[in-house]
TrEMBL record:
It comes from Microbacterium azadirachtae. The lineage of its organism: Bacteria, Bacillati, Actinomycetota, Actinomycetes, Micrococcales. PROSITE patterns: MFS. It comes from the Bacteria. The chain crosses the membrane at residues 7-26, 46-65, 170-189, 219-241, 253-273, 280-298, 304-328, 340-363, 369-392. It is found in: Cell membrane. PANTHER family: INTEGRAL MEMBRANE EFFLUX PROTEIN-RELATED, STAPHYLOFERRIN A TRANSPORTER. Residues 1-394 form the Major facilitator superfamily (MFS) profile domain. GO terms for cellular component: plasma membrane. Keywords: Cell membrane, Membrane, Transmembrane, Transmembrane helix, Transport. It is a multi-pass membrane protein. This is Enterobactin exporter EntS.
Length: 460
C-alpha cells in the first residue's frame, strides 16, 4: 500500500502536502462560512458564485496551464504558485481582521485563488509522476489522495472550531503559515532523483492534448463521467453548509460534516492505494454508488443520520476521483501528460462554475435536499454512461458457459516488438487503447494512437 514511500522525494512531498492541505481545508471552510453568514444572509447563490469564480480559471486557462506544466520545471512552478497562494491568504486575513472585507472583494480574491490554482493543479498532479517510477504512479496518486483526505478529516473540523473561538480572519492566517510546509518540502526535494521527462517535439498546446483525448474513447468516457458529477454532485460546501443551517447548526456543525465526509474519503483513497492499477469499471461503480448515497442522504431526517450517510458519499466520491486521476496519469503519453492532466483538471474544477450556481439557486428556491438530489441523479447518469460504453465496446457480454451470467473482459494494451530475426506478427487491435509497434531492427514503428504512443498498462 505504501510502496511509493520508498522514494525520498515522495516521502518529503507527502508529509509537506498533509500540513499544507490541512490549512487549505481550514481556509475553505472559513471562506464558505464567511460568504454564507457574514457577507450575506444565508445566500447560497452568492456562495455558488464564489465557487464559480474560484474554480472557473482552470477551465478558461486550460490551453496555457497544461503547456506550462509540460514545458517548464514543475518544481519551480509549484514554488511560485504556493508562494502566491500564501500571499493571497494573508491579504484576505488582513481584510477580515480589519473588518473591511466585502462580498465583491471576496469574489475578486476567489478569482485570484482560482488563477493561481489553475497553474498549480496540473503541475502538482504531473509532478507526482516525476517522483516515482511508472509502476508506482497509480499508488502515488492514491496516496496523494489519501494525504488530501487525511487533511480533509482534520481541517474543516478545526477550521469550524477556530471560526467560533478566534474568528475567520485567523483561519486564513493559519493557512498562510501552512504553505511554508509545502515550500520547504519543494526546496528539500533532490532534483537529481526526479525522473527524466520526455519531450514532445510537436508544436501545439491545447489542440494536441484535445486530439489525443479525442483519439481515446476510454478517456472521453472518463472525462464525461467526471464532468457530470463534478458539475452537479460535488458541490459539498453548498450542500453541507445549507444542511447544517437546516438542522440549526453553526460553523462548528458545518465543519464536522465536512470532516465526516472525509472519513469515507480517506477510506476510499487508502483502498485505491491497494489496487495495482486504475480501472474504468471501478470508476463506473463508484459513480453509481455516489448517486445512490447522495439520494439517500437527501432524505435523512436528522443531523446525525445525514452525517452518517456522508461517509458513504465521501467514500464513493474519492474512489471515483482517485481512479479517474490514476487512470489518466498512467495511461497517457508521458510527453503529453501535463496537457492531458490540465484538461482533466479543467473538467474536474471547471465543472464547478457551471454546477455551483445552479446548485446554489436550487438550494435557495427548493431547499438543500433538492440540490443534493440533483447531484445524486447526475451520479446515476454517469454510471449509465460508463455501463453503456462498456457494453458498446464489447467488453461486457454473456458468458458462453452460463446463459444468465455476464463476463467482463479485461483489455490489456499490447506492445508488439519485431525481433531482429524475421518473424510474422498478426495484426492486433484494441477497441479502447492505442497499440504501438516498435521497430526492433529494420522494421518501421506503427502507432494506433493519435500521437504515436499509447498507454503502457491499462485495462477497463
Amino acid at each position: 500500500m505504501f510502496r511509493s514511500f520508498g522514494a525520498f522525494n515522495y516521502r518529503i512531498w507527502f508529509f509537506g502536502a498533509i500540513i499544507s492541505n490541512i490549512g487549505g481545508w481550514m481556509q475553505s471552510t472559513a471562506q464558505d462560512w464567511v460568504v454564507l453568514t457574514e457577507l450575506t444572509h444565508n445566500d447560497a447563490t452568492a456562495m455558488g458564485a464564489t465557487m464559480a469564480l474560484q474554480f472557473g480559471p482552470p477551465l478558461v486557462l486550460v490551453g496555457l496551464t497544461g503547456r506550462v506544466a509540460d514545458r517548464f520545471d514543475r518544481r519551480r512552478i509549484l514554488l511560485v504558485t504556493q508562494s502566491t497562494l500564501m500571499v493571497l491568504a494573508l491579504c484576505v486575513a488582513v481584510l477580515l481582521l480589519t473588518h473591511v472585507m466585502t462580498l465583491p472583494l471576496m469574489l475578486v480574491f476567489a478569482a485570484c485563488f482560482g488563477v493561481a490554482n489553475a497553474f498549480d493543479a496540473p503541475a502538482r498532479q504531473a509532478f507526482v509522476s516525476d517522483m516515482v517510477s511508472m509502476e508506482n504512479a497509480s499508488n502515488a496518486v492514491a496516496l496523494n489522495s489519501a494525504s488530501f483526505n487525511m487533511a480533509r478529516l482534520i481541517g474543516p473540523a478545526v477550521g469550524g472550531l477556530a471560526i467560533v473561538a478566534l474568528g475567520s480572519g485567523w483561519v486564513f492566517v493559519t493557512n498562510a503559515a501552512t504553505f511554508l510546509a509545502m515550500i520547504v518540502a519543494l526546496l528539500l526535494i533532490r532534483t537529481r532523483e526526479l525522473l527524466p521527462r520526455p519531450k514532445n517535439p510537436r508544436a501545439g498546446g491545447l489542440i494536441v492534448g484535445l486530439r489525443y483525448v479525442r483519439s481515446r474513447p476510454d478517456l472521453m468516457v472518463v472525462f464525461v463521467m467526471v464532468f457530470l458529477i463534478g458539475a452537479f454532485g460535488m458541490n459539498f460546501p453548498i450542500f453541507a453548509s445549507t444542511m447544517a443551517l437546516e438542522f440549526h447548526k453553526q460553523a462548528d456543525g458545518y465543519g464536522v460534516l465536512s470532516s465526516v465526509l472525509a472519513i469515507g474519503s480517506l477510506t476510499g483513497a487508502l483502498l485505491a492505494a491497494r489496487r495495482d492499477r486504475a480501472r474504468v469499471r471501478v470508476l463506473m461503480l463508484a459513480a453509481g454508488g455516489f448517486g445512490v448515497a447522495s439520494l439517500i442522504s437527501a432524505q435523512m431526517p436528522t443531523y446525525v443520520a445525514y452525517a452518517i450517510t456522508l461517509v458513504f458519499v465521501g467514500f464513493s466520491t474519492v474512489t471515483m476521483l482517485t481512479t479517474a486521476n490514476g487512470y489518466v496519469q498512467t495511461t497517457t503519453d508521458p510527453a503529453l501528460r501535463g496537457r492531458v492532466l490540465a484538461l482533466y483538471m479543467a473538467v474536474v474544477m471547471g465543472a464547478t462554475p457551471i454546477g455551483a450556481p445552479i446548485a446554489g439557486w436550487v438550494a435557495d428556491a427548493f431547499g438543500p435536499r433538492a440540490a443534493i438530489s440533483v447531484g445524486g441523479a447526475a451520479g446515476l447518469v454517469a454510471f449509465a454512461i460508463g455501463a453503456g460504453w462498456m457494453m458498446y465496446s464489447g467488453r461486457l457480454h454473456r458468458r458462453e458457459d452460463a446463459r444468465f451470467l455476464l463476463a467482463l473482459d479485461e483489455t490489456r494494451p499490447l506492445r508488439v516488438v519485431e525481433a531482429m530475426q524475421r518473424a510474422v506478427t498478426p495484426p492486433i487491435t484494441s477497441a479502447t487503447t492505442p497499440i504501438r509497434t516498435e521497430a526492433g531492427g529494420s522494421g518501421r514503428p506503427v502507432s494506433g494512437g493519435a500521437n504515436g504512443s499509447g498507454p503502457e498498462d491499462t485495462d477497463a
